[in-house]
Amino acid sequence: MTAVAPVLRPGRDGDAAGFIAVVSGCWAEYPGCVVDIDGEAPELHALASHCAKRGGQVWAAEADGGVVGLVCTYPRAGGAWEIGKMYVAKPYRGSGVARQLVETAEAYARGHGAARTQLWSDTRFDRAHRFYEKCSYVRSGPLRAVQDKSNTIEFAYAKPLSGIAIERLDAAGAVSAEVPLARILAACVNDGAAVSFLPPLDMERARGFFRKVASAVARGERILLAAWLDGVMVGTLQVDLAMPENQPHRGDVAKMLVHPEARRHGIARAMLARAEAEAVAAGRSVLVLDTREGDLAESLYRSAGWVEAGRIPDYALNADRTPHATVYFYKRVG
């Protein structure tokens, strides 16, 4: 990592040579990626003007007297804004400049009324995929084949950008959300939450848990919800649909988690309401859940119409290994 901190500024058409050098350098890292700026990406010769005509903006990251990164954003139909041309020169990766670029573009889109951002990424760009997933993007929709010399196939990524948003993740979304979901789980457990694990919970164990969840989602056995607050994934909730054959009408609500830094915004209540709606859509009419006696979630469930079914003393352990009672609730839905 370089010691010179890049500076972000609005891009100019005069940055063309720098933009082309960064993009070409990134493409050259991947076998089969053919650099044909004039034939397939001529907009790089005047990217600022190109973005302005589309109602958007481009930014350059500058260091050592030259361009070392870029990103642009512009509106698309339906209220979403696209993030594009996200590239950082190899010596500057890991410096935080990539996140600065993306967050700058997102803030611009949000300031212009964007409800959602989306982007496309070559299926070969695995490092970029990990970065987007850390930024709370999830894979969304089918792959796209680009008619170019590189035979490019692209993943679609998207996320809600403003306010509180709750979305159901399919199997592809669940896999791509493994890291942010694991961070939420680890943060909650290490903050004392009673959700099957004892602290300290490391990322590897947390990621392993959500790998199993993604598998259950792919089999149609589980509903997985994710919650975003202003573009950052901060919560999750599940509905287990894998019931015995004499209970096809039931679902179990589990693992309601809100990152400790994002609580008291109404996220848990919003997730619970969405979980109930999704369960009804899946043909479930009775839902069951449990919570540690005395937790704030207990009052939330009561206020949301859940009925206490009973308590089991010494059911599980607190973070300090002392036992606690668990309260069971049910609710008829639909």
Q: How much is the radius of gyration in Å?
A: 23 Å
What fraction strand? 25-35%
Strand and helix order: EHHHEEEHEHEEEEHHHEEEHEHEE
Total domain modules:
2
Distance between the termini: 55 Å
Structural class by SSE content: alpha+beta
Unreliable residue stretches: none
CATH architecture of the largest domain: 3-Layer(aba) Sandwich
**CATH level-3 fold name of the largest domain:** Aminopeptidase
Number of strands: 15
**What is the CATH class of the largest domain?**
Alpha Beta
Let me know the CATH homologous superfamily of the largest domain.
Gcn5-related N-acetyltransferase (GNAT)
The profile of the biggest β sheet is: 8 strands, mixed
Structure description:
With 334 residues, the protein is α+β, with helices and mostly antiparallel strands. The chain has two domains: 7-160, Gcn5-related N-acetyltransferase (GNAT) (Aminopeptidase), CATH 3.40.630; 164-332, 3-Layer(aba) Sandwich (Aminopeptidase), CATH 3.40.630. The protein is 31% helix and 32% strand. The protein has ten helices and 15 strands. Strands 1, 2, 3, 4, 5, 6, 7 and 8 form an eight-stranded mixed beta sheet that branches. The protein has a seven-stranded mixed beta sheet with strand order 9-10-11-12-13-15-14, sandwiched between helices. The longest helix has 16 residues, at 203-218.
Short note summarizing the structure:
The protein is α+β, with helices and mostly antiparallel strands and 334 residues long. The chain has helices at residues 16-27, 37-40, 47-53, 97-111, 126-134, 171-176, 178-190, 203-218, 267-281, 296-303, and strands at 7-10, 57-63, 66-75, 80-88, 116-122, 138-139, 144-145, 153-160, 164-168, 222-229, 232-240, 250-258, 286-292, 307-317, 323-332.
